[in-house]
Amino acid sequence: MKNIRNLTLLMAAGAAFFFTACEKEDATGLETQDQAITQDVLDKLAGFALNTNDVRIGDFVFPDGTTEERYFVEDDLTFTREAIENLDLAGGITTEQYRTFNLVSSPRTIRVIGYTGGGGFGLSSRNRTGLQWAINNYNALNLGLTFQLDFGTAYQSYDIVVYRNPNNGGTGGSAGFPSGGNPNKFVQVYGLDNLSNNVNEHVIGHEIGHSVGLRHTDYFSRQSCGQNVNEGSAGVGAVHIPGTPTGYDSTSLMLACFSTSTNGEFNSNDRTALNYLY
Fold this sequence. Notes:
single chain; 278 residues; five-stranded mixed beta sheet; 5 helices; 11 strands; globular
């Protein structure tokens, strides 16, 4: 299959060049008897306001090198079949700008580990710096969620594990949504070693955002990717959070795609939304 995560070179006004990339997993692999893209799966994803135009099944790689077949949806989100079956629509879809109904129970401390093991799965120096900066950004908001960061290899007991996927030739990251009041556990990054600390901060902060329930800010257009595609509310709605814009927010951390000129910081609307939720 083609690699869907290569950076795209664009020409901006004034003949300046910059790279832009969507946080999007390169999913490979064929459907199996255990997991298939059935209409029931597509209906469940669509009912949760997720884009079902490019659902794929591929191998999700864990820090110890083992794999698990997962569904790859809407660029940088991954789901097991069980997670899809457990998606909760009891309260509908609301927004961050846009968020899922699934949130993390708070107040609580979320224990995060930056994986430093071998086999290419350990975070690089820039990955580790970006992770530390991203955690600092969340903690600076004084939310009902407090993030405690460690680095090491014994990741099993942690709430969120951030690690490299050396098997992905793209650039970005992938994560999932909360479940049962807990954050998504595994956050992958890839292709970031030669990019700035700010880009690493952005991608990791973005994927942690998904892990605590945030959707893409440009969910209605994917304008940051040069597209005009509505990820869809599937009839369940998108309720605006007071104090955040309803239109395109060009500097949000949760845009579907990012550029290498990002500063990796929350903008004022991101901060307003997170404080509203937590």
